[in-house]
Specification:
133 residues, alpha+beta, YaeB-like fold, 5-stranded mixed β-sheet, 3 helices, 41% helix
Length: 133
């Protein structure tokens, strides 16, 4: 039986979805390849490995989707949230051999924010349920 993996997008409290914006601003051929790779993540989940995905920091549950079309190299950081879901956090065009630390920091900060938002939403839902009892 094949598991269906959910792939969601980080959204700031202001409603901004940085990975969607990143993808929209890519050349069309790059957009197609990025979306194809995201769909691979949906199909393969945690079994998706090199050359399409790799762990950036196993201890912090941070991974990257790896997309290359000719000389254009795109990276999208993501993490495994709960159950069968992933959250895409940050995308960027890679221009150096090594991934810049500032790009990793952006992804880590968004991961913390996403989890905090979910915790707040969960508490609000719990409080609402208690009020309606």
């Amino acid at each position: 039986m094949q598991v269906n993996w959910n792939v969601g997008f980080y959204k700031s409290q202001q409603g901004y979805e940085p990975v969607n914006e990143f993808i929209k601003n890519l050349p069309t051929k790059d957009q197609v390849k990025v979306i194809w790779t995201i769909n691979l993540l949906r199909e393969c989940g945690i079994d998706l490995k090199m050359p399409h995905a790799r762990a950036i920091e196993c201890e912090t549950n941070l991974f990257e989707l790896r997309v290359q079309l000719a000389n254009n190299i795109q990276r999208i950081f993501y993490f495994h949230y709960v159950g069968n879901s992933f959250v895409l956090l940050h995308g960027f065009t890679k221009k150096t051999q090594k991934t810049p630390k500032r790009e990793i920091k952006i992804a880590k900060d968004r991961k913390v924010d996403y989890i905090r938002q979910k915790e707040v939403t969960g508490k609000e839902a719990e409080q609402h349920a208690q009020k309606t009892e």
